[in-house]
């Protein structure tokens, strides 16, 4: 149970292939130095149980390399990525990913002709790599000690058995190849926080202990903050917690800024969110962008609307009103109890007054 596990393995390599799973009698095939993946060959490295694979995948005619679910029970269209090399890095259609002879994972971008990302393990005596049955990609030295692992370098997702320490973070995937503003941290006071950029905290775990070392996701569907004694001091549980029929789970910071726990539902053959940090999506800071408004439609689902649009903009981009040269006497649109995150007064003087006087000032 949580907080009571003991490491009973002499080798981290054995721990890698067994944590959270029963030990398999079959040997895990190691990936030797010199091994290479490429967009052109469309090849993959697969875990021994077949549940995970690493390779290139396409997005908007650009490519990323990462680890995804690979189980036969999950349709290809649902085999979501759980780790991406370099987070949001996109590369060209002739790119490659290689475990070099000097023991370094290297992502080469054919579009720019440069090395886009490396594991920085060139001087660490790496002898081979293994994609473990729990989805962790590890680099091993000749003694089978773990030199580097993807679990220590998360992108936007945690898998069961994976930790998030005080010095790590999850960053949401980008929209339209623009870096995301959303991230998940454990701050120095031991709070788990969702942040927009680095200054706005819009959700916190409100844990009581200040000796938090890490956050971790269990295979049973619970998410914990653990102290120095590996004792759970804060936890949340998915709706299907302890459901033995659920084989696959993951925790992800989604592109909309919300943190969600997902379970694979075999009956519907789909991923289902069984917990989310922010219950009201409209309370996620800037969920509709800097100038959008988050509202609920007739079915109760949150949707984004633009208060200021331009007919010259084909995508109806939300615009800041005073940049369009509002003239004296212009009419105003009223939005009750609404705050627009990216709109600030056009000057440094703010007069505290009544609503009607404020309207008059804005129209002068």
UniProtKB/TrEMBL annotation:
GO terms for cellular component: plasma membrane. The keyword Hydrolase does not apply. It is an enzyme of class 2 (transferase). Its main location: membrane. It is found in: Cell membrane. It catalyses: L-threonyl-[protein] + ATP = O-phospho-L-threonyl-[protein] + ADP + H(+); L-seryl-[protein] + ATP = O-phospho-L-seryl-[protein] + ADP + H(+). It is a single-pass type I membrane protein. Keywords: ATP-binding, Cell membrane, Disulfide bond, Glycoprotein, Kinase, Lectin, Membrane, Nucleotide-binding, Receptor, Repeat, Serine/threonine-protein kinase, Signal, Transferase, Transmembrane, Transmembrane helix. CDD domains: B_lectin (cd00028). One of its GO terms (biological process) is recognition of pollen. The keyword Transferase applies. GO terms for molecular function: ATP binding; carbohydrate binding; protein serine/threonine kinase activity. Residues 30-152, 155-274 form the Bulb-type lectin domain. Pfam families: B_lectin (PF01453), S_locus_glycop (PF00954). Its EC number is 2.7.11.1. InterPro entries: Bulb-type_lectin_dom, Bulb-type_lectin_dom_sf, S_locus_glycoprot_dom. It comes from the Eukaryota. PANTHER family: G-TYPE LECTIN S-RECEPTOR-LIKE SERINE_THREONINE-PROTEIN KINASE SD3-1, OS07G0415500 PROTEIN. This is non-specific serine/threonine protein kinase.
């Amino acid at each position: 149970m949580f907080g009571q596990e003991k490491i009973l393995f002499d080798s981290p390599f054995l721990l890698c292939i067994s944590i959270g799973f029963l030990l398999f009698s079959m040997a895990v095939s190691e990936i030797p130095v010199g091994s290479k993946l490429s967009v052109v060959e469309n090849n993959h490295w697969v875990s021994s149980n077949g549940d995970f694979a690493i390779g290139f995948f396409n997005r908007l005619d650009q490519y990323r390399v990462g680890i995804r679910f690979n189980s036969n029970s999950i349709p290809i269209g649902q085999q979501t990525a759980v780790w991406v090399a370099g987070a949001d890095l996109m590369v060209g259609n002739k790119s490659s990913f290689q475990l070099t002879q000097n023991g370094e994972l290297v992502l080469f971008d054919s579009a720019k002709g440069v090395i886009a990302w490396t594991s920085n393990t060139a001087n660490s005596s790496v002898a081979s790599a293994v994609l473990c049955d729990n989805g962790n990609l590890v680099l091993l030295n000749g003694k089978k000690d773990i030199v580097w692992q993807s679990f220590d370098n998360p992108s936007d997702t945690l898998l069961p058995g994976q930790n998030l320490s005080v010095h790590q973070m999850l960053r949401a995937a980008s929209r339209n190849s623009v870096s995301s503003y959303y991230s998940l941290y454990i701050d120095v006071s031991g709070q788990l926080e969702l942040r927009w950029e680095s200054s706005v905290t819009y959700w916190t775990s409100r844990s009581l202990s200040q000796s938090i070392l890490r956050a971790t996701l269990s295979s049973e569907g619970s998410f914990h903050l653990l102290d120095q004694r590996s004792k759970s001091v804060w936890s949340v549980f998915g709706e299907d917690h302890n459901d033995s029929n659920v084989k696959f789970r993951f925790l992800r910071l989604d592109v909309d800024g919300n943190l969600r726990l997902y379970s694979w539902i075999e009956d519907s053959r789909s991923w289902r969110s069984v917990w989310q940090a922010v219950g009201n999506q409209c309370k996620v800071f800037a969920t509709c962008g800097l100038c959008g408004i988050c509202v609920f439609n007739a079915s109760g689902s949150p949707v984004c609307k633009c208060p200021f649009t331009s007919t010259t903009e084909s995508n109806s981009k939300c615009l800041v009103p005073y940049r369009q040269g509002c003239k004296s006497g212009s009419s105003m649109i009223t939005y009750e109890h609404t705050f627009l995150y990216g709109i600030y007064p056009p000057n440094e003087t703010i007069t505290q007054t009544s609503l009607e006087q404020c309207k008059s000032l804005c129209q002068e």
